[in-house]
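Dear colleague,

As promised, here are the two records you asked about, laid out in our usual form so they can be pasted straight into your sheet.

NAME FIELD: protein one
SEQUENCE, THEN STRUCTURE:
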Amino acid sequence: MKISSHKHLATKALLLGSCLLLNPMSSWAEIDSSAEQVTRLTLQGQIDTGAPLSKSLWAGAHNAFASFQWSEGDYTDVNQWYSPKSLFWRGIRVVEYDVYPMSASDNTPKLCHLGLEEATKCSWTFVTVASLATGLDQLSDYLSTHKDEVLMLKLEAYDSDYHNNFRNLIGDKIKDKLGDYVFKPENWGYNNGDCSSLPVQTLRKQDVLDAGKNIIIVTQIPRKKDLCNYHDEDHASKYLEWVWIGADEFDNGGNLSSSEAFCQNGDQCAKDEDGDETFSANYALGNFSLALDATTEYKKDEIKLHGADVLEKAEEGANILELALVEANATTIGASKAPQIEDYVWSWHSGEPNNANNNEDCALSRSDGSLNDANCTQSKSFACVDDNRNWQISTSSGSWDQGFSACEALGNFHFAMPYNARENQDLLSAKNTAGITTAWLNYHDQNVEGVWQANSEYEDIGYSKSAAKGDDSAGDAFDDLDMLKRKLLGTGALNLRSIKLSEGDEGKFRYVRMCYEQGQVVSHASASGNDICKTHGSISGGRFSEITLGSSGYIKAMTYCVDRDDGKDRVVYLKLTTNQNSSIDSGTCTGTSYSLNDGDQIFALHGRVGNDFIRSLGAHHIAASQVTAPLYASDWLDRDNPANGDDERFTKQQQSGNISSTCAASDVAGIVARVVGNKLDSSLTGQKLINNSAGFACWNSDNGGSSSNTTCEDYEVKYFFTKASCLP
């Protein structure tokens, strides 16, 4: 049967009130995005934001385009129930797309799967298929309201037998549709056209956010060939600009191979000392792996990963859980064993966090290893980890805030939260060894209710939220809290930098755009020069005005007026005033006036929009001290070759003209270093290095060598300064 009959069945299921029919949500009416298991998975997806990708865990969906519920394509053999965007709303964070030309004469990138590799053309499916462009829209549409999330897109894109330039067309579509969302290899320091290997041992989701980005795109196709030789620049230069080719991988001797295909279901995994290719062995080496189930609707009885089997793979060390037929409707296609959203969840216990009595802001590890929120003043032991991620329970107990000192008392340990399911099992073992059932975790939402922060020192950001005034029922709700979450999840250098207001021909306010600048922090990743903007309402004639804030500027006051329009309330006037004695306004104040001026900065907005009018408005406030100055990064510098060692110290760089002569060592905020050539982070070389106020260096004598016996790698360094004047 062609998919037209499937569409009929899906419609019939809706009419009959099957399990597909869920409570409509304003965020995405097709699905229930507020279900408690979705909340748990969504929170879990940000626990590992500060972890290297090799320690991250991703809820994934295989062939996410081949969906019952996505009207863009009629697929006769589907892998998913929900559309790609709906999967994101349900907590999925990595999707896989198969991209092939439409036909021998039509090179349009389309989404279809046939398994014919270079010989595939989507016309052979004999059904309507979605375009890659439409598939990419699914990611950008979701991210327009979730700028605090990091998504991964896995591409199956072979060289085409029919079109030499096909992968470059894919690159063009990525640029057109995803543009500034994508974390490109050049953001990590690769040159354009390089075969760039995903640096999973060092790259973090936090680095992606700190670069002003949201998406990682990677391919591991073909799996059995030299990936870099296959994806050569001759026919893939635009593709290489956006797509990471495989990943860095270590063997048991510590040797690095770049651009290797992910370890997948025990295949192509790096072997441990015993020759095993397990997820566990691969994880221990610091590599990246994939647990894949490619089951289709027609083979639904062969579903491999569902229920407890999913977390079993995660606990072994798999990084991506790329499942098929996620939450597929058993009534319609008979997928009774379809994996469920809760199958991905290793962290929060069912029904948690619940903020009981409105005073549960800190996370506890329960006796079974799952999490619940609790009052932070309870006296408990603490979960501690060392730099090698070995877990130990503190010898003392106390309230949550005492965890930092309690773990430090153990030696080289710090108060921590497990990154993933495997670490959580290690913590559970440590608790059992210590005879402890519950322990505090470095995981809390003390700043903003529902915004959980992991593995960080607690700093009160002075958060408050002013209620929206106006019509609380008209139109659709909007909330730019995701911008504040992004600031908290990254390293802070995200500040409001410009505002644009507009009024319609009738002289009433109707549009606001607030743009944020992601400043440079200490990271291998370079911050984007593009602003991240949030817009509400519609520009329709009339006057518009725009203002740019200075480097330490913020909005200190807001006045707006609400009046009736066509029988409903609407915001007819808005004025914003900065701490730098400038202001911007739009419209004419009639009706009821509201003022917000509490001395803090107004960081983001929330409210409702209907018929292109802003119907209600409120604000998120944080302390003025949270305006974080960006750092200024040098180029990658390599002034010395390691004949007697590698000397990249501050004074030597200054003498070489790489740092301004007016700059002092006290102006250095941080230094990162990597090996010239393979770009391996200096921390992974195993060498004894100098990285302090004097700068960066490697001495042969510290690493078993001498002036005639070179042992130091050749490093390149990037300096980060608090002053722009330090750059030459």
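NAME FIELD: protein two
SEQUENCE, THEN STRUCTURE:
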Amino acid sequence: MQAYVPLQTGDPERVGPYRIVARLGSGGMGRVYLAGSPGGRAAAVKVVHEELAEDPAFRRRFGREVAAAQRVAGPFTAPVVAADPDADLPWLATAYVPGVALGTAVAAHGVWPERSVRALGSGLAEALDAIHRADVVHRDLKPSNVLLAPDGPRVIDFGISVAADDTKLTTTGVMVGSPGYLPPEQLVGREVGPPGDVFALGALLAYAATGTGPFGGGPAHGVNYRVVHEEPDLERVPGGLAEVVARCLAKDPRQRPEVPELVGELGRWEAADGTRGTFTAGTWLPAPVAADVTALGAEPLPQVRPTNSARAEADLPTVTAGPAPTAVATARLGTPPAGPSSGGRPRAAARRRTAVLAAAGAFVVLAVVGGLLLPRAFSDSSRPGGDAENSGTPTAAAKQPTVRELWPSDGELQHPEVARGKLVGEGDDGRLHALTTADGDTEWTYDSPDSAYFEGIGDGVAVVSSDAEHTIQGIDVDGGKRVWEVDARTHTPSGTEFNLYMGVVVADGTVYLNAMYDLPEGADRSAMYAVSAVDLATGRLKWTNRIENILSDALAVADGVVYVGVREPDDTYFHAWDAETGDQLWRYSSRTSRPYPGELSAVAVSDGTVYFGDDRGVLHAVDARRGTRRWIYDADTGGVRQWLDPLVVADGVVYGGIGGVTSEYESGAVHAVDADSGKRLWSEQTERDPELHGLLDGSVLFSTKAGALHAADARTGATAKTRLSSGDPDAALDGDRIYFDGGDGRLHAGGVSLTER
């Protein structure tokens, strides 16, 4: 079980006195490397992202937080051993813990027994006690920030996330922290202190005991809404733990227990060998997790990196690139830490559903970040060691993308789509706008109700949904006038109350709705789901399929077939339904050799085969007519990663992005897989989650959350890139024209060209 990945071109050979030997991961603040100290001790070195290093306010806060973190000393923390906040790229080094992340362990082996959960809580409470005594608040305690070692858990990244406040990381709409673990006071913009870490601890214990967070899964905005307004679901938490977990999750921070109280209360646990409250030889862990932890600790650490020239001589596989990719109508929302996963149409991936929390005063205002776009053309050739997002394979075959600006609009337009010479999308004022593609001028504005979101266009009708108003509306693309409106009550199953639309797809004259519904108090579960079909021209309901089990967010329609994923008690199944009638055509079991099946997160259809990507990094090729397996491809990401929509199929190759389930600001990758055999042709690591846009002139174009447009050679994966934005560019490609958020509060249009390097 390897915890690290090889170094990539552009990674440093040395940071301060540390020799860099491998990558450990990446997050919203920086990249983390495995390194060796001058005396030969292993360390984890975090190097801050370049865009944050340019922010003086971030540097000041980073320096203060590092100084505070260096005061933390406790047996269940990874101490800070060195740092340089004044370096060109600030960095800090902590003791290296060869441990398995809690999220990875639960995903691989399932829920924990009460004894192990109590032991986990005991160690985490003691870690928080040490952190708080140093006047530090963690603020981002989550499964990926807890490492499991034989002698107890380790809390990492304590205090450092605070430095991201008032910087580009938060002013561009990113809330530091993970859905389900953020306390309600943080979500509504109040001060966060040690009780916020107690809330996260309670959520972690519920997660380990049940395999899902106490506020469920699904889109981030839905999870956060339940954190603020609803009680946690602790039904499956063992009785001996439920009471303490419930107190930790109290809405009022003043009602949560103090950390020293938790240390005493949770410290009375007994290990498998009968020892009381003592972490020895892995006896506190579930047996399969202990085996993984032991195996990881026995692995030899990698040696110093080879030279660039040695890596450049590696053989590269080749494929033939050809026609444009197959188009599949899909819908996707955010990525949950556990529970129904997401997948779907390209622009919905960048969806920012803030209205639910804005009603509670929860979100900061999006700031305008300027100065990153050159006047008329912006191109960024790769340079040795000069960019944090440089890809890892040789770039001799890569074509350099250049984006020549055609116009900027007067404002933002989120996840726009092109139809009839117009760009349609959500503006930063919360309303639907249509701009002319020729010059970016506003053609019309539709005063949509509160909490309305653009879902897609078909047959000259733009579709918007409103969770708050419980409606779906059709808007005439030519004039911006409402054509029809459908109230959710027309497709709400009897005995339930509408909650939210998880995904909406517009395809073949129909609007397909993937929705969640609340059940009455006292029911044996909190929610149910349904998929409905509404006529695009009239809003008339065609059919509704009620789903008793958990429905994945991902929803796709192609060639007259609807594809959905359903988690049933024994397995997760991918379904194919007739798009006109809703009748089931077949059901496919997604189970593989992994202990737990993955949930549907991405779909593509081509030449009689449907390709299902799941949230365990597995790609399934299934006969589209019979529902039988042709092959499976395991991306073997070594962690919790999911296939991201859209998948692109072109000339016998499936191209897809891999991204984080717990956070879209973790590292990702792009894979190319032979469509006939399921064999990997190449893969390229990316600094943040990638979003594929299609093929152009023999290259696969994709953008990343870090603000770059990449062109990967379709044969080799060799990659070059250009900068688009200071953050997520939310890009839409139409032929050789690209529309994107420039990070300066405006939508930009540019012409894309590729040149030999």
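A couple of things worth noting about protein two: The radius of gyration is 25 Å. The chain is about 15% helix and 35% strand.

Best,
R.
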